Here is the input.
Amino acid sequence: MKKITVWFRCLICAFLVAQPAVPLASSIDETISEQTLRFDVAFSHWYSDSFRSAEQGKNLSIGVGYTTPLDWLEIVGRYEWAKIEVDDASPLHPMFDGNRVNFYTIGPAFKKDFTIGEQTLTVKFLLLNLLYVDIENHDGVYGESSGFEIEWLFDNKQGVIFNFREQGYDLPDAPPGHEKAQVDAMAILGYVRRF
Here is the structure.
């Protein structure tokens, strides 16, 4: 699974921030600017070359966000948990299959709001977020997570959220001959509320 280069991620973020602001009605503008906190609850699914989430559609994801005084910058955090499923033929099967895994991420999101009437579409790029992976019966490891997130608020307060990320970390206790570097693809879909 090929990783997107850091330079490409930086270029995307620079392009997003440099775009001219979309004109907003004053009342809508004030509503958005006052909403500095975000909370979402969602279902997640993740996959990698080594293993994947066992219970599709049943893995919980909880996210929070704080919009800084720089309205294009948000600090985001997320917690996800799932059970690991490993192919029977894989050397990782006896070590990881059925174990619970917890993902914790925190870092910056570069965002832009597009508002039409009472609806708002927010596009975010998550760049080099800090990742901590805690796998049951194994030592925790650190890594990085990058990707994008889309919020669609139906009334400028609540709506749906979609998040897709690429996560990189070293697999703890990897057996001899198995690639230690791990790259996961993570996707979530759920409900979001701004305050």
Q: What stands out?
A: The longest strand covers residues 100-116. The radius of gyration is 18 Å. The chain has three helices and nine strands.
